[in-house]
Inverse folding.
């Protein structure tokens, strides 16, 4: 079963589970590859409290830098996760600061002026509630009870056309202008107004998928569901989905992050794994750029 659910509708779930000695964290994994492109402008990170995928936009190295700036920042902020309840506010503030890093880099290096990035990120405070932030056309999906629910709505022109009934969802999937984005992080103050932030109650066994459009554009949702439901763990799920996208073949960079919700006693923070441009930074990123501390 595949459900394309509008963002504003909460995923139905039983009451969140709480146990005084148990903390909800992610068991997560991420992989990324350039696919048929000469370079990889996607970035991703997978940790115990925060998982994110970003797809960079912009000529030359700009896209790789934009996605790296945001993912490197989120990865650092997400090391131990939010200190208390309020993961949505915490995630929003972390993204706002990441977006300011893009603005600062653009101001320092005018040739990067057009760079931007999508971002889809999930965070948990350990209380069984998940915060989801989304801007652009990377996606989040929830696998629960054998059904795959798309949690995000693409900020694309073709999605807007499909919502208006001008084209069918299938036409949107293959439309030549399907990559035209209506909202991205490009370091402007009003970007944050377009970031959709929602909270979702979780339950044991939930598996979340974040991916760039190189994956969702190459792998039909029914296939995604079968792969996610059949893989024993996040690492296997991410690897199998990446393989499926590359074999499709993908037309774009391919980035997959998979997170299983698990309740564990007293989890130790684990440094998030970084993939894509954030892990293999072009020289421009390793040159010192002014950082904006929150
Ligand atoms: Mn892409």
């Amino acid at each position: 079963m595949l459900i394309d659910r509008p963002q504003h509708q909460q995923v139905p779930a039983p009451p969140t589970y709480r146990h005084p000695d148990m903390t909800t964290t992610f068991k997560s994994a991420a992989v990324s590859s350039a696919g048929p492109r000469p370079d990889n402008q996607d970035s991703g990170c997978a940790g115990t409290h925060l998982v994110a995928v970003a797809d960079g936009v912009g000529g030359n190295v700009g896209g790789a830098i934009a996605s790296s700036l945001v993912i490197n920042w989120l990865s650092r902020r997400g090391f131990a996760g939010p200190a208390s309840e309020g993961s949505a506010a915490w995630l929003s503030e972390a993204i706002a600061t990441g977006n300011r890093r893009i603005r600062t880099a653009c101001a320092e290096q005018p040739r990067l002026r057009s760079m931007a990035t999508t971002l889809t990120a999930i965070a948990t405070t350990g209380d069984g509630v998940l915060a989801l932030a989304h801007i652009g056309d990377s996606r989040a999906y929830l696998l629960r009870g054998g059904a795959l629910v798309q949690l995000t709505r693409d900020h694309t022109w073709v999605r807007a056309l499909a919502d208006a009934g001008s084209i069918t969802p299938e036409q949107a999937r293959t439309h030549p202008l399907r990559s035209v984005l209506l909202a991205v992080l490009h370091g402007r103050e009003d970007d944050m107004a377009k970031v959709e932030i929602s909270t979702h109650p979780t339950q044991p066994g939930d598996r979340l998928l974040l991916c760039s459009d190189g994956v969702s554009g190459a792998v039909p949702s029914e296939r995604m569901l079968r792969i996610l439901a059949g893989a024993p763990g996040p690492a296997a799920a991410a690897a199998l989905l990446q393989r499926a996208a590359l074999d499709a073949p993908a037309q774009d960079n391919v980035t997959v992050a998979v997170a299983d919700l698990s309740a564990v006693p007293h989890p130790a923070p684990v440094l998030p794994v970084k993939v894509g441009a954030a892990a293999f930074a072009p020289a421009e990123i390793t040159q010192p750029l002014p950082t904006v501390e929150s």
Summary: The pocket of manganese (II) ion is lined by residues 55, 212-214, 252-253 (CB under 6 Å). Residues 12-17 have pLDDT under 50 and may be disordered. The CA atoms of residues 126 and 144 lie 19 Å apart.
